[in-house]
Every structure is written in C-alpha cells, then in structure tokens.
Design brief:
The chain has 335 residues and is an alpha+beta fold. It is 19% helix and 39% strand. The protein contains 7 helices and 20 strands. The termini are far apart.
C-alpha cells in the first residue's frame, strides 16, 4: 500500500464525528425540551407560594418556632392548598408570593387523614391552575415539583413517576426533595396540576434525606386533593366513610379476586350488619375489588349515612349484606 494512501486512511479514521444537527443544533431536541420545561415553570410560578407558620415555643417568652413550606393557589378567591404538617398548631401564618408580596393567612380546615390543609388570604385576583386528571397519570411520565426551597419561593425539580402506593392513594415520584417542599404542587408535562407533595419515602433513613439527595417523594393525587379541599372550604373538616374491618388477601390464597375479612371492629357498621371474621368480600356496591386498598378507597369516599351492598362468600354461599356507612373516627386506622 502506498504511503499517502495509508496516511489518508489513518486521518479519516481519527477525524472528529460531528454531532447530528437535529439533536444538538439550534432546533435540537434537548433545546426544545428545555424550552418546554421553562415554559411550564414560568406558568406555574405565579401559582406557587411560600408558607411561613409560626408556633410559640413552650416555656420561652417571646420566642417563636417557624415551619416553612409550600402551597398552591386553588382559585382567585385566595384559597391555598398545602400540607397539614406545615401549619399544624400555628398561631401565625403568612404567605409569600413570587413577587415577594407578603400576606397574612387564616386556616380554613385541616385533614390529618390525607395530610392536607387549606388556608386563605384576604386578597383576591390570584390566577387559577389548570387541573389535570390524576386518574389518568401513568408510570414513567415526567413531572415537575415547584415549591419553596431554602428561601427560594418557586424552585423547580424534575422528576419521574415511578409508581403508586396503597392502590393509588399516593403518587410516588423519583425527584429531589428540599426543605420547604411540603405542600408543593406537582405538575405534568402539559403544565397541569396533578398532585400535592406531602412527604418523602426514605425507608433506610429515619431522618429526612440531605438537601438535594434523590429520594422518592409522595404526592396526594389532585382528584382526591380537590375533593378534600372542597369539604374543608365548605365544612372546615373532612369526613370519611367507615366500614370497620381490617381486610387483606385470603389465607390460604385463592385464585378468585376476593378479600378476606381479618378483623371486625366491635359496634362498627360491619359488626352491626353481620359481617364476620373470615368472610370473603366479593364486591362493594356491585363492583368487584382488585385488593384491600381499593376496598379502603371506596369505603373512604362513600358518603356518611349511605347504605351499600357488600357481597360476601361465607361457607361456600354467596350472600349480600346491606351496610350503613358511618363517619370514620379520627383515631381509627382500620377501614
């Protein structure tokens, strides 16, 4: 082989490969993605507020302890949705908006069951969010958490929906959790509000994860959050339906989609109706159940006083029992 031909082959083999223009150029995919994210954050920021809740320290005169969290404006009337843990026990609550305006706020209602609370400022004219449908949220979708982060009123963090817990009661997101993110809104890739961050899941760390360390955040789906907010605004409290059973998979396991009653609370609606330990629940109000979490969700959202039909299997016999659902006692943790 001639020397000049060999040199040409070597030079060609080490020549730099240019990045494709469609991926990295002026109209690249990443740049368009950045523009979309910036647009969503820009629309979300006016909806997000920082909440400062002051608590008097016991035994110390004129000393106050401050909790800092996030909230999202629900409507133009000044109602704000946040995490119940942020304002629990506070005697003074203030809200700081994106333009550093500061407003005094009053508590409207708390719901320890869901971990949500509603406060209100007297000022009106706030923008309203575009609400998504959290029942249609899918695993693998990108999300944005926009909230207070160590003094920054509307810092944003990109995350990924990784799953659902307790039959969809919580959305699990892989994202960065910062101090002050409690009560922060969760937006989807279209800029729709789909959840409210209420905490993080860190099974190997008893304390909150260090700032900026990736963790799994937990968010209340916005459909449930809005239902809770409506009740808190109207009545100042949230009521849940109560059946009064502890239930789970049957023992021994069954191929049928059934739920076994493990325990019946004395003087509960289930006890009064005649449901027994060991009964297999086949359906609730004519609809089959995937698991015990779905039973809990349906009972929880049933109106207090409503009579429902619970279909059971007992000793190889199918029976239907009417049960009048009662208000769930706040101290109870059974369904």
């Amino acid at each position: 082989m001639k020397p000049f031909l060999l040199l040409s082959i070597v030079l060609l083999s080490i020549a730099p490969i240019e990045s494709p223009r469609f991926a990295w150029g002026e109209d690249g995919v990443l740049e368009r993605m950045e523009d979309e994210i910036a647009s969503i954050v820009g629309k979300a920021r006016p909806l997000v507020v920082s909440i400062r809740a002051d608590h008097p320290e016991p035994g110390r005169n004129a000393r106050w302890q401050r909790n800092v969290g996030s909230g999202v404006v629900l409507n133009s009337e000044g109602y704000i949705l946040t995490a119940e843990s942020v304002i629990r026990g506070a005697e003074r609550i203030s809200v700081v908006a994106i333009a550093e305006q500061k407003y005094a706020a009053e508590p409207i209602g708390f719901d320890p069951e869901s971990g949500l609370a509603v406060i209100r400022v007297k000022e009106t004219g706030f923008p309203s969010p575009l609400f998504g449908d959290s029942d249609r949220v899918q695993i693998g979708r990108w999300t944005l958490v926009v909230g207070n982060s160590m003094g920054v009123v509307s810092a944003s963090a990109l995350g990924l929906i990784t799953g659902f817990r307790e039959g969809g009661r919580w959305i699990q997101i892989n994202t960065r959790i910062f101090p002050g993110n409690g009560g922060a809104p969760l937006f989807d890739s279209k800029g729709c509000l789909i959840g409210i961050v209420i905490g993080e899941l860190s099974p190997h760390r008893p304390a909150p994860s260090p700032s900026g360390v990736p963790a799994s955040a937990l968010a209340i789906p916005i459909n449930e959050a809005r239902r809770v907010a409506r009740h808190l605004i109207a009545y100042g409290e949230m009521t849940y339906g109560w059946l009064g059973v502890t239930a789970g998979p049957p023992n021994p396991p069954s191929e049928d989609r059934v739920i076994m009653v493990w325990r019946v609370v004395e003087r509960s609606p289930a006890h009064k109706a005649g449901i027994r330990r060991g009964d297999l629940i086949l359906s609730y109000e004519g609809r089959s159940l995937k698991n015990a979490w779905e039973l809990a969700r349906r009972v929880r959202t049933t109106s207090v006083g409503q009579v429902v039909n619970v279909e059971l299997k007992r000793a190889d016999q199918r029976i239907s029992i009417p049960v009048r659902i009662e208000k769930k006692p706040s101290s109870r943790r059974v369904r």
